[in-house]
Amino acid sequence: MSTADAQRTGKTMLSIRDLGIEISGDASHPVLKGLNLDIPRGQTVALLGESGSGKTLAAYAVLNLLPQVARVTSGEILFQQTDLLQLPAKKMSHILGNQIGMVYQEPSTSLNPLMQVGKQIGETLRLHKSLGRRAAREQVLSLMELVGVPDPRRRYRNLPHQLSGGVRQRVVIAMALACRPDLILADEPTSALDATVQAQILDLLSRLIQDLRMSVFLISHDMGVVAALADRVAVLKGGIVVENGDVRDVLKDPAHPYTAAMLSGDIQGGKMQVATSITQTESAPDACPFLNDCRWARKECRTATPEETIIDGNRMVRCFLHTQTSVTEGME
Questions:
Q1: Number of structural domains the chain divides into
Q2: Which site from 14, 56, 173, 269 is most exposed, i.e. has the minimal number of CB atoms within 10 Å?
């Protein structure tokens, strides 16, 4: 189902509208500018971009957990028609863990190092579902089995440091799923894992998403992860979404030079590696965010970011290079 269709039929789980975020310091500067994103029920939508693009701040804004140096300057975040940005802390705490689950990129920072992992999963159940200790334990064991934790009864009593990185991440996923939330936020869910374990966790997440029909907001700089899990992808550069479409269309025929650079391997370790072919000069505040890394930058790219252009009925791109044919052809 398209984003527009989801909006019309009321089947959007999360709707981010005109979200702006800035970082304060010696001089405040915007890191997210007018983000618009819809996550339909039962679909996975990825926000893809290199390190520092603003994607993780978008996720933490949904959770109302922005760091003190960051603040929302505009917009709304509608979760089942409720603006999360306007909720008091008590109501937000009821939603987190219960209706919205979180899978963090580094399990060691999201687990209490002094508490048995089984009890940590059970805390969420006891808090939101008012379960007794015995009933919670049985559900925890079932969850641990669901996410593939080996020998759940023994692992229940382990502390986080006694588990491998892959098993710790399975525990984090079990915590996120404990209350069968309507939405999962997954922030770089495999980036802290080695390649073999990453493949296992991706396979697990893919199966769970399909079996449980979850809505997922995926944050990643890895196109491979996005290809494995997402239905749609929004590509973020310099706080602006430069392309948004069905993940298969974006992978097959990128409509923005930045997306093409990501697909060609010019972004490594989450950072752009390619040098521009134009002389870098001072540009206007509204210049294209990819200007200084783009081989095909034009004069107009220095002064303005293109307006959103809809192509193929359900795909958006911001690029002066865009024509009726593919941008990839225009870049050859």
A1: 1
A2: 269
